[in-house]
Design a protein that fits this description.
Naphthalene 1,2-dioxygenase Alpha Subunit, Chain A, domain 1; Rieske Iron-sulfur Protein; single chain; nine-stranded antiparallel beta sheet; about 450 residues; alpha+beta
């Protein structure tokens, strides 16, 4: 039996959102600065479609848990005694207090700090304090924690939805699944699997869609990251990553449907290792690995370090960079967003490789990502305080994009807005549809 949490009202005059995202590639400023639109996004998008929750390896054992937010909803994702993964809202059914105040851990039970109600790791209400006050007919089952009606895992990546009628996960993934598979297969994970390490955690004072757009925007790279590019050339010579992005490139961007998008750089990435910027320990770790396993095998492993050649967005909140790195976009307010980076380490790989993956993942996010956060905050400010200029332009590439008739994938130059524009078309679709969010 579904317990309704929020019936999202019909968008009614759907033309409201049709007027904010136009076919000619214009997007209205209000979708970045209007608090009411942000609230509706938290229901229609972060409540109404699939969102990334965590990687299975973050909760490997029974009763392991991690607390996250899903469209601002405090959420506990836990592995039950039977090994099943469930997601439940971190809100006591009694008076609304969070029942778990730690980031992660292992717990067979969650006890509310306010009045002592206790729940199992799967969200069942086990006991209430001073039960005589409720009488013998008190319905425990009616007071369980609110559980997501849909939680599914794909090759270790766990997704959930508060919309019981959301499309099947594989249908939602569509062609994006192929790139995710490529990224996972590339790591050649052994029987001991992987573990996920928390990386840099960043905050910027801007709308969540800025970051979502930025990660498949190849147009900004030679300009916003110019200082990094110049430093790369001066210190390390030409050919390092980010130094060769221009309008005459074999690299492409693609819109994959369902809001998913891809910046595909693999055509010009001859070697992830050779084209990566030097990081602390590069020479020491690589030479140690060569001494240990030989040059040929060492170089196969070293290709698992550095940029893998993809920027894959699984809409709305997962960013996969390959070679073990992914990020989660976490909207907090219309003008406030958390970005949480993670590194996947391969348990069967030599320690030198995992050390280098950590060092590399720290590298760009401490340099280039600071540029991104700064410009996104500046964009947010101008959109807010200049109402006289209503529109943003994401039309670049409309004159040269191509559509695959079989898959529907739209492809254009790396520097084009094709992927961004497709995601806004899907944003409009999600915001126009009726959605019923619920818990079980």
């Amino acid at each position: 039996m579904l317990s309704p949490v929020q019936k999202v009202p019909s968008a009614g005059e759907s033309s409201r959102y049709d007027r904010l995202v136009l076919p000619d590639g214009r997007v209205h400023r209000s979708i970045f600065v209007d608090p009411q639109i942000f609230e509706e996004e938290m229901l229609r998008i972060f409540g109404g479609t699939w969102v990334f929750l965590l990687h299975e390896s973050e909760i490997p054992e029974p009763h392991d848990y991690k607390t996250i937010t899903v469209g601002r909803r405090p959420t506990i994702v836990t592995r039950t005694a039977e090994g099943r993964i469930v997601a439940m809202l971190n809100r006591c059914s009694h008076r609304g207090s969070p029942v778990c105040i730690r980031d992660s851990g292992n717990a067979k039970r969650f006890t509310c700090p306010y009045h002592g109600w206790t729940y199992s790791s799967s969200g069942d209400l086990l006991s209430v304090t001073f039960p005589d006050g409720y009488g013998p007919d008190f319905d425990y089952a009616a007071h369980n924690l609110g559980r997501f009606p849909r939680v599914e895992s794909y090759r270790g990546f766990v997704f959930g939805s508060l919309n019981a009628e959301v499309e099947p996960l594989l249908e939602w993934m569509g062609p994006a699944r192929d790139t995710l598979d490529w990224s996972i297969d590339r790591d050649k994970v052994g029987p001991r699997g992987v573990r996920v390490i928390k990386g840099i955690q960043m905050t910027y004072r801007g709308n969540w869609k800025h970051q979502n757009d930025n990660n498949t925007d190849g147009y900004h790279t030679p300009f916003l990251h110019k200082a990094t590019n110049v430093m790369n050339r001066m210190r390390h010579g030409p050919g390092k990553w980010l130094s060769h992005v221009n309008d005459q490139t074999a690299m492409v961007c693609q819109y994959l449907g369902h809001g998913h998008k891809l910046g595909d750089h693999r055509a010009e990435l001859k070697s992830a290792w050779a084209q990566s910027r030097p990081v602390p320990g590069r020479e020491t770790f690589s030479q140690s690995l060569i001494d240990e396993v030989g040059e040929d095998i060492a170089h196969e492993y070293l290709e698992l370090v550095g940029r893998a050649g993809i920027n894959l967005i699984l809409y709305p909140n997962l960013f996969v960079m390959g070679n073990g790195t992914f990020a989660v976009f976490e909207p907090v307010a219309v003008d406030y967003t958390n970005v949480r980076y993670y590194t996947t380490l391969i348990n069967d790989a030599p320690d030198q490789i995992n050390q280098l993956r950590l060092r590399f993942d720290e590298d760009f996010h401490n340099v280039g990502s600071r540029d991104d956060s700064d410009i996104m905050e500046r964009v947010q400010h101008t959109l807010k305080v200049i109402p006289e200029m209503e529109w943003l332009d994401v039309s670049r590439g409309m004159v040269r994009q191509t559509i695959d008739e079989r898959t529907g994938v739209v492809t254009s130059n790396k520097t084009d807005d094709t992927a961004i524009r497709g995601a806004y078309d899907y944003w409009r679709t999600l915001m126009n549809r009726d959605v019923r969010t619920s818990v079980i």
